[in-house]
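As a warm-up, study this chain.
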Amino acid sequence: MAHGRKKSKVVIEVRGGCVVSVYGNTKKLKVILADWDEYVGDGRLGAEYPVDPLTRMSEETLALSSGIKPKQIDLLPTGQP
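Now compare it with the structure written out below.
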C-alpha cells in the first residue's frame, strides 16, 4: 500500500437474511450478490447492489463495523443474555 492511501472498506448490511444496504469508501466499486438460492439456471445468479458512502450508515451499523459488540450497542432482543 502506498503511503497516504486509505484501505478500501466495504460494509454489507444484512437483516433477516436479506441484503439491506452496501456501503463503501471507494467510488468505483461494483458489488454483486451471488445468491444460489435464487439461481434459476438462465445465467442470472444474483443482483448488483448500489454502494452508498460509509457516512450514510446508521449509528448501529457503524458501531458494528467498527468492532463494537452487539451487547454494547443494545441490539439484542429483550430477554437475550
